[in-house]
Amino acid sequence: MHRLLHLEEAAGPTAVSTGQLPGAAAVEGLVRAAWERYAPVTDGKVADYIPVLAAARPDWFGLCVAAVDGTLHAAGEADRAFSIQSISKPFVFALVCQALGGGRARECIGVNATGLPFNSVMAIELNRDRTMNPMVNAGAIATTSLVPGRTHAEKWRFLLEGLSRFAGRDLAMDAAVYASEAATNQRNQGIARLLQGYGRMYCDPDEATDLYTRQCAVNVTARDLAVMGATLADGGVNPVTRDRVLDADRCQRVLAVMATAGLYEQSGDWLYEVGLPGKSGVAGGLVTIAPGKGGLGTFSPPLDEAGNSVRGQLATRFLSEQLGLNLFASAAGPG
Ligand SMILES: NC(=O)CC[C@H](N)C(=O)O
Question: What pLDDT is stored for residue 194 in this prediction?
Fold first, then answer.
């Protein structure tokens, strides 16, 4: 299988992970360099299984790095709105862990990798946990079924307010994306029913699928993703608003499930090359967390076969190397 991250040579010497990001001018220059380096890439294919997503332009490309001190560095179309899609998964898992406790969330969902595509039914059949991991559809729909609230409206408010606190601004759902996916998400409806049959669905399966489809249709920008990622990097405190969205001990669990399955069946390749927890979405977004340092948000719609943004992965790998973010690089020692 074509492995995206092997497409080109590594960008250069890997900087060694240190306590913080380099100075603002250096980060600014590297974010611009990443944009210039990967803007000409034309590999990948825009998602079309959700019909409205097919209208995205392949040349859209935006990047943003948010440091834990709240400094932001952006390049290209960092303010273009797109639907968050699967990048909602870690943040909704975080909100559910905050409401129920990480232990209970783990019991109800599971935290192991499936090694299979994000919407795999085989993964449910083959594994005793069924739901497996909150980063794939089965685990994500089960996670959404745990959202507290007496009514659908209360649950939706919990989701939208929680995602907005991570971003530090009021987010809104894209009604056209929601309608397009709601009309074509029979597979996710099936997954929710299958989980119900296995006792791994914690509210009505149609309600859970509808709420999940709504959370995936929330609009964000690359800049929002960087701030949301920086909130996880900062132990649960949004570095721009200083709002504590999540307790630090829950934050570390969210990063663990992202590292395990954030890029689906290519999570191993990703961790091997980039060395950071990340999460992709089919609209072309990608969020990556450098714990204690900051968040990276990228947007570029063309995807590889696993549904991960091609330019997003390349630009993030470049920045991980150049900024010395790889969590495992410190094992090599300085110099
Ligand atoms: N990988 C993704 O971003 C998938 C999200 C999409 N809403 C789905 O469930 O199919």
Answer: 95
Q: What separation in Å is there between the alpha carbon of 281 and the centre of ligand 1?
A: 7
* ipTM of the predicted assembly exceeds 0.90: yes
255 Cβ closer than 6 Å to some ligand 1 atom: no
Q: Structural domain boundaries of the chain?
A: 4-86+218-330, 88-216
- Can you name the residues that pair with 237 across neighbouring β-strands? 244
Token duo for residue 312: 């997003």
Please compute the mean of the pLDDT values over residues 237-265 and round it to a whole number: 96
- Name the closest-CA residue to atom 6, ligand 1: 85
Choose among 61, 248, 72: nearest CA to 167: 72
Give this prediction's pTM: 0.94
- CA end-to-end distance (rounded Å), the chain: 35
Q: Which residues are annotated as a binding site for substrate?
A: 86, 137, 181, 188, 212, 264, 282
Give the three-state DSSP class for 22: coil
Domain 88-216 has CATH 3.40.710.10: yes
Distance 9 CA to ligand 1 centre (A): 30
Among 187, 49, 209, smallest CA distance to 124 is for: 187
Q: Is 21 in the pocket of ligand 1 (CB under 6 A)?
A: no
Q: Which helix (H) or strand (E) holds 219?
A: strand 219-220
The β-bridge relationship of strands 285-290 and 278-280 is antiparallel
Q: How far apart are the C-alpha atoms of 186 and 63, rounded to whole Å?
A: 33
| CATH number of the domain located at residue range(s) 4-86+218-330 in this protein | 3.40.710.10
The encoded tokens of residue 20 equal 């913080």
pLDDT for res 116: 87
DSSP letter (8 states) at residue 119: T
